Amino acid sequence: MTTFTARYTQLLERIHQACQQVDRRPEEITLIAVSKTHPVSALLEAYEAGLRHFGENRIDEIAEKRPVLEKQGYTATWHYIADPQSRHTAVVADYADLLHALDRPKIAQRLAHRLQETGRGKLDVLIQVNISGETSKSGVNCQTWETDPSQQQQLLQLITAAQNHPQLHLKGLMTMAPWDVEEPLIRSVFQRTRQLRDWLKTQQPGLQLPYLSMGMTDDFELAIQEGATHIRVGRALFGERH
Ligand SMILES: *Cc1c(COP(=O)(O)O)cnc(C)c1O
To answer: Going residue by residue through the chain (242 aa), what tens digit of pLDDT does each one get?
Structure first.
């Protein structure tokens, strides 16, 4: 076994166990391989091992890696997992299949414009919510969403803004837990994200938000237990970053 397949096998086992603890099926979880800083050869290896979802957080990497794989005939779903700055929206619209980190109406507008202009048509999007309130994190501020009508309004307005663009298909929420904190706090961030998703569905009849993107190498077990449908894993697959 190569180092990669050994890591991948171990990761699948961890996912399996986390699912078992809460009576979920591993098929419910989409594993996104996050190869940032690693060369495209790492992705080719991942593809050959069976991975079909790739996550990038830098536009130069998604723009480089996707065409290389496609040239090999390797079709995958490409996730852009970082906050796209205004000047990068065209690259995201051109190369991503699912954006995880929409957090303001202006970005929605720019993406929709580009999708229309190029004829690419559509992009799935998740709204990133900042539940922990850490200023280092992007996402819509939802630190006290349960009791703060202004935070609720801001999020509902962004949802409406996204829905106004037929090119954007809103699929759910994404969040990141704080690092280096106790497990109960990490768990509560995931739990409150799921509760927020459930609450949003009560606010708009017919609103479907099936995806919850949460959990990374150090915390995906907790995220799975709290309802994650998409986990974004880097180090457990590719090793430490250079
Ligand atoms: C880097 C990154 C990941 C993966 O992190 P690991 O800890 O290496 O698994 C997941 N999500 C986002 C947004 C990232 O930037």
So the answer is: 789 999 999 999 999 999 999 999 999 999 999 999 999 999 999 999 999 999 999 999 999 999 999 999 999 999 999 999 999 999 999 999 999 999 999 999 999 999 999 999 899 999 999 999 998 889 999 999 999 999 999 999 999 999 999 999 999 999 999 998 999 999 999 999 999 999 999 999 999 999 999 999 999 999 999 999 999 999 999 999 87
Specify the residue with its C-alpha closest to ligand 1, atom 10: 232
Q: Which residues contact 93 (CB under 8 A, 6 or more apart)?
A: 110, 111, 114, 115, 118, 120, 123
Tell me how far the alpha carbon of residue 38 lies from the centroid of ligand 1, in angstroms: 13
Query: Ligand 1 centre from 37 Cα, in Å?
Result: 11
CB-defined site of ligand 1, < 6 Å: 34, 36, 57, 81-82, 216-218, 232-235
- Which atom of ligand 1 has the smallest separation from the CA of 217? 9
- Give the span between the Cα atoms of 142 and 144, in whole angstroms: 6
Report the predicted TM-score, pTM, of the whole model to 2 decimal places: 0.97
> Helical H runs in 164-228?
183-203, 220-225
